[in-house]
Write a structure and sequence with these properties.
373 residues, Rossmann fold, 2 domains, 9-stranded mixed sheet, Dihydrodipicolinate Reductase, domain 2, alpha/beta
Length: 373
Amino acid sequence: MNFTPSTRKGPVGVAVIGAGNISKQYLDNLTVFPDLKVLVITDLFEDAAEARAKEYGIPEWGGPEKALNHPDVEIIVNLTIPAAHVEVATAAVNAGKHVWTEKPFSLDRESGLGLLKAADAAGIRLGTAPDTFLGAGIQTALRLIQRGDIGTPLTAMTTFQTPGPESWHPNPAFLFQHGAGPLFDMGPYYLTTLVQAFGSIHKVAAVGSKAKEVRVIGSGPKAGEEFTVEVPTHVSAMAQFESGASSHSVFSFESPRARMGFVEITGTEATISLPDPNYFTGDIRLWRAGDEDWTTIPATGPANGRGMGALDMARAIRAGVPHRATGDLAYHVLDSMVSISESIDSGTFVNVESSAPVSTALPEDWAPETATL
């Protein structure tokens, strides 16, 4: 895409489509970043949009069309359920709006590629969660790796294990349907981090299992209701990167013991332990041969939370430069997850045909709370 500076000046107008649970985490930040102006929030359930609007002082609310047709909106923040991500993002592209969408980018390669091509043809930017890799924790670790503190990165291990979200989520069934499960729900955080550290994934192999065909909602107004599990709830995946490095990852909703946020990268000189990629900060630990214990390194840089990626895209729109959490990166992660699913079904290695460049580092003094536009 040929990026040119925006002709508009001042804060970038934003509309949010989707007023569910995740919208609160976004709006806590989007409504206080001075370079953004949240103009409208919409939802198929307009009462939910109205409640969020009044909670955050957003001037307008209604159905999705109100966001798509708003003349001052430049970025649509798409917080709908995974099955609706591509449909809503495509509608935004057709309306001439840039799009920031929650993960996963899409549920399959065909729709994801279609969205990429439509956006490119229209000169529209796509940005996609997770933007957690832009936070101080992962960015500090990446700076250490790129500086050579562990030598040449060779291998990685990551682990995400929980009993499953049905115990606490009031409406968890969608997290066990096609396009979700532990791989598609949590995989983007871990795989995006690995791609930033190693570069693009070349091929994958995986096994998967499903411990229960039916699960029971444990809390909220639907407590006691049963729902069907459609996808593997335990995935063990290997990846080989174009660089020759390799990783092993576990994604599981089947472990009574919760083990989340484990990411270790080993290089020729040392091993680095990264903070939880689902969060924006956390200490980094470094172990070198001969050390008696880990050395703890505090994270430096911004760690404001969800919405940092949308802000980075807004500033990039005004400046006419590339943003960091791109649609190409999100599609490559999606392609890798689909390939992992295909490997589970086929019992063979599967090549990942897409690739994505490593994103430019975020400056340590990048300040979301400072007005720059």
